[in-house]
Amino acid sequence: MSKMLRVNELSYRYGTKQVLHRVSFAVEQGEFFGILGPNGSGKTTLLKLLSKELPLQEGAIALNDMPLVSFSPKQLARVVAVLPQSVEAAFGYTVKETVELGRYAHQRGLLPKWTEEDERAVQEALAKTGLLAKQQQPIDQLSGGERQRVYLARALAQEPKVLLLDEPTNHMDIAQQVRLLNELKQWTNEKRLTVVAIFHDLHLASLYCDRLLLLHEGHVAANGTPSELIEETTMEHVFHVAVRRQAHPVLPAPLLTFLPHVKHMSEGLASLTMTTTSEQLVVTTKTPFKVLSSAVVGAGVQWARYFVNRHVPKQYTSSDPEAEMKQYLRERSFDVQQTIGMMTAVHVEDASIVYEKDLEVSLCAIVTAGVGNAVDVTKAWQQNVSSSVGTINTMIFIDGMLTDAAFVQAVMTATEAKTKALSDEGVLDPVTNTFATGTSTDCIAIAASQTGREYAYAGSATALGKAIGRAVYEATINALRNYEKRKGERR
Ligand SMILES: Nc1ncnc2c1ncn2[C@@H]1O[C@H](COP(=O)(O)OP(=O)(O)OP(=O)(O)O)[C@@H](O)[C@H]1O
């Protein structure tokens, strides 16, 4: 298959200093290709060889299957545009005049004429870079980020097939970075523009690039998709920092988080306080706990200090319960970003609290249970299951450092224990008359201090799993009995 750009066994020396070692890769037309690597790994040198700013010493570069050496400067400028790392501001020129210079390669003859085509390309480039309103301004009166955009506009006005960018978003604020990369990405799709760009920001590279080349001391350390390449061991080897890979919340792109030398301190469960009123049950921890939950507020993975189980009337409805609950929390001065918020129609004073403490595990389970919406989940498909708020809310606080697997297993173990408690208490699904496995709107939060003892797993084979199983079972049984008692008193 023909490639837009093909680099083969490319090596380069400044004097006796070898800075690139037999670098090979290929880029297809329309690809957004990123070059990553630590300072001094050879990225700029590589880009300068691709633009012929540096002469070829060893190896080969082909553009559209033609050797780069065979291109005259003007021929090359019709195919390749470059945005260097830093450009000297050309004093006296306006923005538009600077961008017009990009049309040089397309002009012919000794006395070239400015054509409609030239004007259209310049205006399009100005529009793409958000500079239409500034076109008459002198370039030396612009900010660093704006000037960077002018040079990008000049490169785009060249209407190249390949765009070489050395840190294109350098000097730009985050909104400009995202805007520019969105535009470039669109051009790679619509105009089949090929972009080869040096990135320092791994996240931007991971989000926008189709493929990445990772350089390490002038060698290719890796070459692949962001998902293949943004990987903990490789990154730690190349960048010499401890990292952790995570999933992007919306896209199948990896995110890397650097692990700083800052220690998270916690007093564990000793710092836990609980207050209960008829309106709400609130658990507060002195330091944030890491939480995996299905709560109305704070669902997913969060760090939180406030855990609110709010009592709401049985007939509670809201078109947007999350927004309504956030408003409720704000009105009561909770820091919403650090709060896990659940709701229940059950009286929260009937919560059951069970502590498990031995040499291996220290945890606390808090359960509120109502079975107005009890459901046998295996038969739920037969019925119109309600989603009102008669529910079982389970919170588990663990003194320890849980892996992701342990968090997920803690949810499984707690759910199994809850289901067993319902069955032992004889709770039935009122429609099918079979044992209920839960209610239709149950909620769970697993909160861990993330200090002290490490727990890789939390299934029933482990001490943590055993403790969760016992505590959740006991707390659920007690909470169910409290609920039944109150119901009996009301009759
Ligand atoms: N003109 C030069 N003369 C001598 N050595 C040079 C020259 N330009 C760069 N180098 C050296 O070559 C190596 C690679 O430099 P290069 O600029 O390609 O790295 P880079 O990966 O782009 O770095 P950065 O992330 O800091 O921009 C570095 O050790 C640098 O000091």
Ligands present: adenosine-5'-triphosphate
The name of the CATH superfamily of the largest domain reads P-loop containing nucleotide triphosphate hydrolases
The helix tally amounts to 12
Number of domains: 2
Report the count of strand segments. Answer: 24
Q: Please identify the top-level CATH class of the largest domain.
A: Alpha Beta
- Global structural class: alpha/beta
User: Average pLDDT, to the nearest integer?
Assistant: 91
Q: For the report, how would you describe the main beta sheet?
A: 8 strands, mixed
The radius of gyration over CA amounts to 31 Å
Using the 3D structure, state the CATH architecture of the largest domain. 3-Layer(aba) Sandwich
Question: Would you summarize the structure shown here?
Answer:
This protein has 491 residues and is α/β, with parallel strands linked by helices.
Structure overview:
This protein is of the alpha/beta class. The protein folds into two domains: 5-258, 3-Layer(aba) Sandwich (Rossmann fold); 268-490, L-amino peptidase D-ALA esterase/amidase (4-Layer Sandwich), CATH 3.60.70. Helix content is 29%, strand content 29%. It contains twelve helices and 24 strands. Strands 13, 14, 15, 16, 17, 18, 20 and 23 form an eight-stranded mixed β-sheet that branches. Helix 4 (116-128) runs antiparallel to helix 5 and helix 11 packs across helix 12. It is elongated. The relative contact order is 0.09. Bound molecules: adenosine-5'-triphosphate. Adenosine-5'-triphosphate binds at residues 14, 17, 19, 37, 39-45. Keywords: ATP-binding, Nucleotide-binding, Translocase, Transport. This is ABC transporter family protein.
